[in-house]
Fold:
Amino acid sequence: MIGLEHYLTVAATLFVIGIFGLFLNRKNVIILLMSIELMLLSVNINLVAFSSYLGDLTGQVFTLFVLTVAAAEAAIGLAILVSFFRNRGTIAVEDVNVMKG
Structure:
């Protein structure tokens, strides 16, 4: 049977992979956004695991709200990157860092 420890181990592993993605890749903005989303997914796994373990639905409902906001955030972030790529021709972190409005 899969216990709470297994879910926490998977969530911790996903979080560490997300941290490595942030620190090891400093060139591509899309990889950085994917790493942040992976970290957020690991937090959601923790919320659902503890919610199921404690028999409370609050964590699962909160996870649905977090996933909804994360989907909107990812869509807006990718739209900004597409617009930036059309204007500048690159999405390198160094070039995105010097955006002028």
Q: What stands out?
A: The longest helix spans residues 58-88.
